[in-house]
Amino acid sequence: MLTDSGGVQEETTYLGVPCLTLRENTERPVTVTQGTNRIVGNDPQRIVSGALAALDGVGKAGRMPELWDGRTAERIVQVLGVVGLMTCSGCGKIAGGVAAEPDRPAAERGADDAP
């Protein structure tokens, strides 16, 4: 894959597809250090050389970066529970703060309606 897109750099790393980035830097360095991305810039010789290597099957193999396992939401829920921000079952309140009532968003409640 030839790209200048950071999102594509991530997708190719996730899918294990060799990627050549057509600029001199990336905002996704993990795709270079651990993934399948190789920075080739705008030098035609580097682009062609990298593309031919990838087509010959000798492109950068890379590996899946740590925590790119599709379980981010589970980790977020765990952290929120640890810091006491999980919603109380059935009451609509958040421990240590105020959440919207299940049947009425917080923005619709008046000051004297506060739980």
Describe the structure.
By secondary structure, this protein is mostly helical. It is 32% helix and 7% strand. The protein has helices at 6-15, 30-33, 44-55, 72-82; strands at 2-3, 19-21, 37-39. The chain has a three-stranded parallel β-sheet with strand order 1-2-3, sandwiched between helices. Strand 1 (2-3), helix 1 (6-15) and strand 2 (19-21) form a beta-alpha-beta unit. The model is unreliable at 97-102 (pLDDT under 50).
Break the fold down into its secondary structure elements and pairings.
Elements: E1 2-3, H1 6-15, E2 19-21, H2 30-33, E3 37-39, H3 44-55, H4 72-82
Parallel strand pairs: 1-2, 2-3
In this structure, how is the largest beta sheet organized? 3 strands, parallel
- By DSSP, the count of extended strands is 3
Quaternary state reads single chain
**Estimated helix fraction:** 25-40%
Secondary structure category? mainly alpha
Mean pLDDT: 81
Order of H and E elements: EHEHEHH
Strand order, sheet with most strands: 1-2-3
Low-confidence stretches: 97-102
The shape is: elongated
Number of helices: 4
Terminal Cα span = 54 Å
Radius of gyration: 23 Å
Beta-strand percentage range: 5-15%
